[in-house]
Structures are given as structure tokens and as C-alpha cells.
Write a structure and sequence with these properties.
alpha+beta, 5-stranded antiparallel sheet, 109 residues, 5 strands, Beta-lactamase Inhibitory Protein, Chain:B, domain 1, single chain
């Protein structure tokens, strides 16, 4: 009986040790990686196919807004910090018209 109680106590103790020192927590990236080099390649007038070649498939292609693509990247670090980057691309017909979000094209591009 005493061994059972000790086992239950140790199990409960270890289950509550998510913040236990020395436990490694991994970084969890999700979504589309967005770089400044990718954004610098975007020019008004590019077709959807050309944009997909540069940026990859968008994370969200909203069926209600077919002329808007959303690229979202999140990173939950092991230390508990959180990063989020987003970029919205707008099209008129099949051509890129504008973008907004956390990135802007570099001057001179």
C-alpha cells in the first residue's frame, strides 16, 4: 500500500513539473516563412501564378475574398515567447495590385 501511495505521489509530482529546470522545449514554427527578399521580388502587375512561385502557397485563400491572399507565420519559442508575421496580398483580377502587413518592399525595388 505504501509503495502505491509513493508511486501516485511521484506520478502527480512529475506531471506538474512542466516548468522543471533542465526540460528542453522545442520551438514550434507554423505557417509560411516570409523573408524580406521574397517581398522585394513582389511588383504590382505580377500574376497569381508568379506570386505563388515567389511566395509559395498562401496559408489562407479565403473563398469569400478570392482577390486576397494571407501569408501568416507564427513561432512559439520554447522559452514561451511568441512571434507573428503576416502579409496580405491583394489582386485585381489575376494581377497583384497591393500588399500590406509586417513587410514593405525595400526602397529602390
Amino acid at each position: 500500500m505504501q509503495k502505491l501511495l509513493v508511486s501516485l505521489f511521484l506520478t502527480a509530482f512529475l506531471a506538474g513539473c512542466s516548468g522543471f529546470p533542465g526540460v528542453y522545449k522545442i520551438d514550434v514554427p507554423q505557417g509560411n516563412v516570409i523573408t524580406q527578399e521574397m517581398v522585394d521580388q513582389l511588383k504590382p502587375g505580377l500574376t497569381k501564378r508568379q506570386v505563388r512561385f515567389v511566395m509559395g502557397s498562401p496559408l489562407v485563400e479565403d473563398s469569400f475574398h478570392s482577390d486576397r491572399w494571407d501569408y501568416i507565420y507564427t513561432l512559439q519559442k520554447g522559452d514561451g515567447s511568441y512571434e507573428k508575421q503576416q502579409l496580405r496580398l491583394f489582386f485585381e483580377g489575376d494581377k497583384l495590385s497591393s500588399l500590406n502587413g509586417d513587410f514593405r518592399p525595400s526602397p529602390g525595388n
